[in-house]
Design goal:
The complex is a heterodimer of chains A (246) and B (204).
Chain A: E1 40-41, H1 46-49, E2 81-90, E3 100-104, E4 130-134, E5 140-146, E6 151-153, E7 159-161, E8 164-169, E9 178-184, H2 202-206, E10 209-210, E11 223-226, E12 229-231
Parallel strand pairs in A: 2-11, 2-12, 9-10
Antiparallel strand pairs in A: 2-5, 3-4, 3-8, 6-7, 8-9
Chain B: H1 20-24, E1 52-60, E2 71-75, E3 100-104, E4 111-117, E5 133-139, E6 147-153, H2 157-161, E7 179-183, E8 186-188, E9 191-192, E10 202-203
Parallel strand pairs in B: 1-8, 1-9, 6-7
Antiparallel strand pairs in B: 1-4, 2-3, 2-5, 5-6, 7-8
The chains are: A mainly beta (246), B mainly beta (204).
Chain lengths: 246, 204
């Protein structure tokens, strides 16, 4: 443990031209679910700067292992065994410690375990599809899973999602709250996906695409993909009547 | 030339999609045995201080149809106006109240419900007091970046009248979209994503 005081500065404003816009009609559901009026800008008060934190003791032993956390004893999920790992950083490049990272995904065939899901590909009886972990002191996280399959969806007549893992991340302040998706290096479906293409800047899409990481691949066991996540940075608190300084 | 700022860019948001429940409320969608209980489902216990309230409502799209696949999170101060967070510098919040909750909308009716307590007042940037409020964050299929709004309390007319955030809403006709009406101990807060009664959303 370090005697580091919590930071209490306001967050950097979001770059809303880098994020997807609300109204992105090629992703059809956004048409009726996008506000039409301008957002009201609000300087961060303590309501936005503060946020919930989660202790490592909330985690179950298998929470970061989707190959086994829903499997029957002695069995495991079917699919390409992979490790996904990386750091949660802020925009100043510093690791975000104690960040709760939740993830969910389809199975190897592209089928989600969800009441409303009707895709004809089969469920894997040993795969649930949810996991979570908390970053260490340097912001690192890792989990083990199987690589999800692509998935057809009723948007265009023949639209398919690239293989992806959904991520939900808590930083230290509620204004850092973020949900995003991780894609896999080399997937030809990425460039033609209407959800990916709600993001207009190709560089922002690259940052959501995880490269194969042979250095962390475990021989004869699992490949690794590296996925760093960046949350909003926060202003240094110098000259904000805070004794502890910057 | 100058030194480079070398700031990183925030990871771009993507929609939570229709199956957000798998990751965030797995027990709700029938994935049982992985987590004991869905995170954020229960906000209060027997020892939590403050007035017990229920918040209920719907998230409604531009056609008037309630969303049946939305996920909402709320973040609020305790009964005395303190946040249970390391960034809270004014004192220690009620240890029996985390201040954060998460609920899905019902898959048939679209109704969400939070059982919580009424928050105390917290200061604005320069120290003036804000009216009691709860921060809402809404994600769903079709929402590319989570939407932020606030719920204020209909029975706090005096505090609402001097709230620095409500005062910034230029089009006064839109202020009521942020205020929940009270009946008994229940506040009803409908969130309209689009259209004439569109809720005020914030860029925080």
């Amino acid at each position: 443990m370090r005697n580091t005081l919590a930071e209490t500065g306001a967050f950097f404003p979001r770059d809303r031209s880098w994020h997807p816009k609300a109204f992105t009609p090629d992703y059809k559901t956004s048409v009726l679910r996008s506000p039409q009026k301008a957002l009201l800008s609000l300087s961060n008060t303590v309501s936005e700067i503060a946020g919930p934190v989660f202790g490592h003791d909330m985690l179950g032993e298998m929470d970061d292992d989707l190959i086994y956390n829903y499997a029957k004893p002695g069995e495991s999920a079917i699919g390409e065994r992979i490790i996904v790992h990386g750091r949660v950083l802020d925009e100043r490049g510093r690791g975000v410690s104690g960040a709760l990272v939740e993830f969910w995904q389809a199975n190897a065939a592209g089928r989600y375990r969800h009441k409303k899901e009707t895709y004809l590909a089969p469920l894997d009886p040993n795969f649930g599809g949810c996991g979570r972990t908390i970053t260490d002191d340097d912001g690192y996280y890792a989990f083990r899973t199987i690589k999800p399959g692509p998935y057809p969806w009723p948007n265009g007549v023949n639209d398919w999602r690239p293989a992806h893992i959904h991520f939900s991340i808590f930083g230290h302040g509620f204004a850092q709250r973020l949900i995003t998706q991780m894609y896999f290096e080399g997937d030809p479906l990425i460039s033609i996906c209407p959800i990916v293409n709600t993001i207009s800047d190709p560089e922002a899409i690259s940052r959501l695409t995880a490269p194969l990481d042979m250095n962390n691949t475990i021989p004869m066991d699992s490949r690794a993909f590296k996925f760093d996540i960046v949350l909003r940075g926060r202003r240094s608190t110098m000259f904000e009547n805070r004794k502890e300084g910057n | 030339m100058t030194q480079a700022l070398n700031m990183l860019k925030e990871s771009a948001s993507q929609t939570a999609g229709p199956y957000v429940h798998i990751g965030c409320t797995p027990n709700f969608t029938g994935i049982e045995g992985v987590y004991d209980e869905d995170l954020g489902k229960v906000m209060v216990n027997d020892d939590t201080l403050g007035e017990r309230i229920t918040i209920t409502g719907k998230v409604i799209d531009g056609s008037g149809t309630p969303l049946k696949d939305a996920l909402l999170e709320i973040w609020q101060a305790d009964h005395s106006g303190l946040y249970n967070s390391p960034a809270e510098t004014r004192g220690l919040a009620d240890p029996n109240f985390k201040g954060w909750g998460r609920q899905p909308t019902d898959m048939t009716s679209g109704v969400f419900t939070f059982e919580t307590i009424k928050p105390g007042r917290v200061p604005f940037v320069e120290g003036r007091m804000q009216a009691p409020h709860i921060t809402f964050w809404i994600v769903a299929r079709g929402i590319n970046l989570g939407l932020n709004t606030r719920m204020y309390f209909g029975d706090e007319e005096e505090a609402n009248a001097e709230d620095p955030v409500l005062a910034r809403v230029e089009h006064r006709v839109r202020v009521p979209t942020l205020i929940a009406g009270r009946e008994g101990n229940t506040y009803t807060f409908d969130i309209n994503l689009q259209g004439p009664n569109e809720t005020v959303f914030f860029d925080i």
